[in-house]
Specification:
Alpha/beta knot; alpha/beta
Amino acid sequence: METVIYQPEIAGNVGAIIRLSANTGIRVNFIKPFGFEFQENKIRRAGLDYHDLASVVIYDSWEEFIQINRSKNIACLSSKGADSYWDVNLNNFDFLIFGPESIGLPESVLSEFKTITIPMEDNSRSINLANAVSAVLFESLRQKFVK
């Protein structure tokens, strides 16, 4: 299972996700365009010295990603999902896609794949992107290693 971050907007979240990738051994894929310059200092600061330890792939567009990976088993994470991430075997998917911080994944992406959610209070709209990725990645590791 790999993580996909679709058009991220905040450099600090990207740095934290790169650090998370290095510490979990789970590859992270980023899909352009980004809402910042990728070499920005905020990414380095948030990712500390983990950049060389993380497995990172960058796609120039959604079209490039989907052209290469269409045959893979893909799920989306969204507040619009019906199934909780802890009720789904996350490791059955090749990719878990997370959307940009301000608007989430577009309907055109959500409609193509299974959509999973992280349960929240009814009056909540979303969880910070890096925190959401962290929760889901550690649940996938728990599912993988705890029998």
